[in-house]
Specification:
132 residues, alpha+beta, Immunoglobulin-like, six-stranded mixed beta sheet, four-stranded antiparallel beta sheet, 2 helices, 38% strand, elongated
């Protein structure tokens, strides 16, 4: 085996066996999905009558991807991803059963990079939507 091939083989082997605590150090983590960050809700308050009619909630933040979902009181819902900074989800009585504080988060499922030791996806912090 030529010496340059041997060096490349060692580099690849080292990358595969190295601890993958940091995605930036593992060259195989390029496809890892970032954990979402949630910043604000629009509106931050709505009436239960609006929920009964079906109302759109806009979630703003960053690091949203096409597979990101909005989590309402622990239930993951499909969302429309307008950009990496904005998601929209329809709120109905099937999701919110009455007035009160509604916990909202964003979930990005992990991709297929977990098998190579990369962290991927995650759940944002929680913001509260007030339904009165």
């Amino acid at each position: 085996m030529p010496s340059h091939t041997y060096g490349l083989t060692l580099a690849v082997l080292a990358a595969l066996l190295a601890p993958a605590c940091n995605n930036t150090l593992n060259p195989l983590c390029g496809s890892a999905r970032p954990a979402p960050l949630i910043g604000s809700l629009s509106p931050s308050t709505m009436s239960f009558a609006q929920v009964q009619q079906g109302s759109v909630l806009t979630v703003k933040g960053s690091q949203f991807v096409s597979s990101s979902q909005v989590v309402i009181n622990g239930k993951a819902l499909s969302a429309t991803v307008d950009s990496s900074q904005e998601l929209k989800v329809m709120l109905t009585t099937g999701v919110i059963s009455g007035p009160g504080a509604v916990k909202v988060a964003v979930l990005t499922p992990s991709g297929n990079s977990g098998d190579v030791g990369c962290t991927s996806g995650g759940t944002s912090s929680v913001l509260v939507l007030t339904v009165n």
